[in-house]
Amino acid sequence: MSLDRKTTALKQLQGHMWRAAYATGQVTGEVFEDVVPAVRKWRAAGLKVYIYSSGSVEAQKLLFGHSTEGDILELIDGHFDTQIGHKVESESYRRIATSIGCSPSNILFLTDVAREAVAAEEADVHVAVVVRPGNAGLTDDEKSYYSLITSFSELFLPSS
């Protein structure tokens, strides 16, 4: 874990370990305060929201079910993890699009990792890079190439 390996088995083990910590309230999932209002607005407009994380689906459900904003699982239409493919492989994004019955060109992927953004774009998925405290830095080229946001409130998305 200290090497931040994104292997499926390790992420699943991590999810099992976290279950007890979330259940007892020792751990809560950090959700930035702009996320829930933005997601509620998108869902009210008929948009669907999916999570694609290197964390297992189980870990995602723990995080969003025990978040700093409460249980927000109702706001999420589905979850994907590395079982669909690695986030730096463009085929993973195509598989997700097929799974949700959507053209890749109708998907917006939010990430803080430039390599993931590259893979998503290769699959014809739209990308915005989220710049948050603690994220890895971006190169000057990445900063000028990608749409950057610091808050979900900066996204103005069309209705479904």
TrEMBL record:
Claim: Lyase is one of the keywords in the record: no
A GO molecular-function annotation: acireductone synthase activity
A biological process from GO: L-methionine salvage from methylthioadenosine
SUPFAM superfamilies membership: HAD-like
Keywords (A to Z) from UniProt: Amino-acid biosynthesis, Cytoplasm, Hydrolase, Magnesium, Metal-binding, Methionine biosynthesis, Nucleus
Keyword set includes Cytoplasm: yes
Domain of life: Eukaryota
Record Pfam families: Hydrolase
InterPro entries reported in the protein's UniProt record: Enolase-ppase_E1, HAD-like_sf, HAD-SF_hydro_IA, HAD_sf
Protein name, as recorded: Enolase-phosphatase 1
Species this protein is from: Sphenodon punctatus (Tuatara)
